[in-house]
Design goal:
Layout: H1 2-10, H2 22-39, H3 43-52, H4 56-69, H5 78-89, H6 92-108, H7 118-127, H8 131-137, H9 145-166
Helix pairs in contact: 7-9
């Protein structure tokens, strides 16, 4: 284990403090998974190393939650950890939008003619959004997918912040 920890730290993995930004949470997990693949970590090693990289609110959350995720006598499983982390990091609403975006990108590979043009790619993505998000974007008539996706993220973040502020 000592050698694994040493190799892990040589890769300079980032810490995570739970900034509230869903994108930061996704990127942190992806970064860790790349390091874990390189080091050929076991599921238990992955959880131990990831927990060590947590700081602030995220560390406090894990201290309060770990007994529920891994009751005494349960093996530490990476998938269970990631599932709990994602539930903590994303509201259902944000998670649903992330899944839609990922599915859209995945499926677009099978119908390249339908999304050959960047404008068409953006339009089709926009048309598949939830009505409450779509209605805010249609008047902007955004033709660039990256800009459209960035706006969707801003709307999601704003919606989540307002929901948190109102207590719903």
């Amino acid at each position: 284990m000592h050698q694994l920890v040493e190799q892990f730290f040589k890769l300079k993995p980032s810490k995570f403090n739970g900034t509230g930004d869903p994108e930061a949470a996704i990127l942190w997990i992806k970064e860790l998974e790349k390091a874990f693949a390189l080091l050929r970590c076991s599921g238990e090693d992955k959880v131990i190393l990831a927990v060590y990289q947590m700081q602030g609110n995220t560390s406090n959350w894990w201290e309060a939650t770990q007994g529920k995720v891994f009751p005494e006598g349960t093996d530490l499983a990476w998938n269970a950890f990631v599932k709990a982390f994602n539930i903590k990091s994303f509201s259902d609403y944000v998670w649903e939008q992330k899944m839609y975006e990922a599915k859209f990108v995945e499926l677009s590979r099978y119908a390249p003619r339908l999304v050959d043009e960047p404008v068409e790619w953006a339009r089709r993505f926009r048309d598949g959004l939830k009505p409450e998000i779509k209605s805010q974007l249609v008047p902007l008539n955004l033709k660039d997918y990256n800009e459209l996706y960035e706006r969707v993220q801003l709307i999601e973040r704003d919606t989540a912040e307002r929901a948190a502020a109102s207590g719903s």
